[in-house]
Amino acid sequence: MQKHFEVPDSLIPNEYHIVKNKGVLGLEYYEDKYTTLLQDHEKKLRVFPSMKPSGRVEAIQLSQVMDAMLEKVGFNEDTEQQFKGETQMHHLLDIVKKEQDIYNIVFHELIRQISVDCAERGELLAKIRERYVSLLDYIPRHLNSMHNEIMMQRVLDRQLIMELFVFQNAVEKLNSELGELRERDRMVAKTIEKTQMELTGALLDAQKNANMLDEYHQLYELQRKRLIAQVNTLTQEKDWWNEAAYSLALKVIEEQSLKLVHDLQISEKLWVKIAQHFAVVLGTKDAEDQSKLQEITEQWRKQMTKFTKNLENAEELSQETRKRVLSGFKKWHNYLSEKIASPHGIKSFAKDKLYELINDLKDWHEMITQDYARYEGSLFLITQEELLDMVQLQHVWTDLSLTLFDRHRWSANEKMPEEIAMQELNSTVSALSKNYTIRLTGENGTAWYIMKLQDMLESCRVKFDYANMEDIGLIEFDLLTLNEQFPTLVQLLQDAINLAETPQTEESRKNKETYISLQLGDVIQKMQGWLLALFKMIIHMDTKLTQQILIVQSEMSHLLVDILLQMVHDPVANLKKKHFTTLSYPDTPAKLEKKALMVASQLNILSTQIYGWCRDIVEGFVKTRTALLLEDPDNDLKDLEKLKVESTEWINICELLLSEMKQQPVQLLSSRSDDAQSQISLTRDLCAACLRNSATKILGMSDSELSVLMPGEKESTDGPMTIESFQHSAVQVVGNVTETGESSQIFKSSENTDRAEGMRDFEDQSLGIEESHTLHSPSKSILKFIGEDTNIHEKDLKEAAVPVLKVDINAVVPIHPKSVKAFEEMVAMGMLQQQLM
């Protein structure tokens, strides 16, 4: 679109134009070649500026106009102008610009007036005016730039002055700090000088002390070498004396025929060796079980961590799907509600929107169906099997832990703190597994809500899938029904979202049961603490068992030494105390019995505990070796049985020795279990071959010669000879010797009587009949037999028979205390019989 530009008639403002007085002037006629044109004077009133040659009047008028314009601008040469700009320079530039505009107007008018008379003169003046204008324009610009530079310089100077002030303050501060540092340096110099003097004195003292320390060190080294030599000498001497004492003790035992003491020592050594062996076996098995337990718990931790992560990912994906479906429900419910509330109603529902709603219903149904597949199907079964595997791992570590607890329990009713902690841990783990099961199966109500939602969506989808799109009325009815169902759908889905991570069943919520939130990290940390406590307890118990074995060994050795000193003690030396000036005086039989009671109790308890703890382990070894067809698979089981046998044997021998010392029966254990006695009898039966070999060595006969003594009897090939058969053979041998007249012997076996009657009744009850054999000799008849003390004794078979008074029988002079008692009873019975007759 073109714009019309109008060129003004004059550059002089309108208020300065000079017009004619319309009240004086009339019409003027302008003659033309063809007509006469009458014009109004109001349209031709302007006489300044005019295109006619100018005169003085127009110059004066122009001067007056210029003065008026300058006065209007505010320029007055006589009075000082007030500043209106930011600075004096800005005000001056503003005045100069305005004056320049006025001068341009006046110059333009003068040039116009002159150009009327002479165009060249006017053109020259115009050129000069343009030069002056450009010059005057350059001056303000230059002044403005100079002013800006001056202002910038002033700002820079001001900043430099500020920095100078800051620098001056910093210099003053540094001067003050320098003064303080100088003062401090002076004080430190004094302190250093003083410290240097003290250090010089300390160095002198240290040098003196170092010299003295070197001397002391040399003395210490000499003393240490001397003491080491003495210790080595004493240790060697101690070892020599120990070996000598041990050798002397063996010689004394052999010389004094103290076979029971020797057997006591052998039982002690065997028991200690077997106990230490099974302590090592127990520790090794504990280490293996600890490793298995750690592997099982680590496997459970990894599987449970992976299971938790997968479950949380599945729940998070389900939550996102449900929220997306929920937002779709709300969007379409709002849209349908707005359409129903509109003036046109549901009829304004467009077909493209209807198809979009149908597609959304299909998508919602598929999404909800996929979400419900979490609670059934193959994936659900696989996940449930993983959870059951972790529950099985829990049962495995529980059984293994109970085995470890039973292996280190000193009493049946004892409950260890670690066992209580394990029960609490199992309760926590079971609660965690139950929570995961509820969340996995949807028993918290989520599965029911999703299933209900799926059924409703399927019903809505089927309606729209088989609906006739041309039937507007039916479509409107279905849309209204769907809009009414949307609040129910929203509520069902919202409840499913809220209950997704709640591990509480509907029944628990109705009963208002308390719910404790369980985190897998807390359960794992609790498990690690329990494992550390359990391993620490096992190590402590194994160490304690080793220490108990060493303590019992020490007590048994001390008791053996005390018994040996008591049995070989010289009564005269005992009164004068010649041999016990430096050693402790031998204990009395009562004190020995008290010590033996304590040692026997500890020995029995420890043997029983080791037997119970290692029984299952050894049986496992036997099964493994039997399956591998190894040689002698039950060797460890025999050693374990031998542990109790040696313990009981040691106690029995100790009872015999103490009974002989006190001359009355001594029982160290208040009661013996039938099981222990049966185990001892079984082991003795198994060792019958050993007894037979001992008998052949004692009699100096071979097995064939021993069988010759039993005419018509030979050793059974079914197995080794038992103790009963060996005793029966001895009785037959004695009978044969008596019948031939080569020797005679009365072989008696007293029946068991009450323990209160004497020590020998107790010994006969334990040992049974004396095992005896006769040795054929052409010169004399001597019977060698094994006595109650298991030593070998000799007895002359040709003892003179002594007639019993008032009884018509002859008897051998009794020697054994029990025989003496029986002889006295026989005499008393004969006297009573004579009196009755």
UniProtKB/TrEMBL annotation:
Residues 297-324 form a coiled coil. The keyword Coiled coil applies. One of its GO terms (cellular component) is cytoplasm. Keywords: Coiled coil. PANTHER family: AXONEMAL DYNEIN LIGHT CHAIN DOMAIN-CONTAINING PROTEIN 1. This is Axonemal dynein light chain domain-containing protein 1.
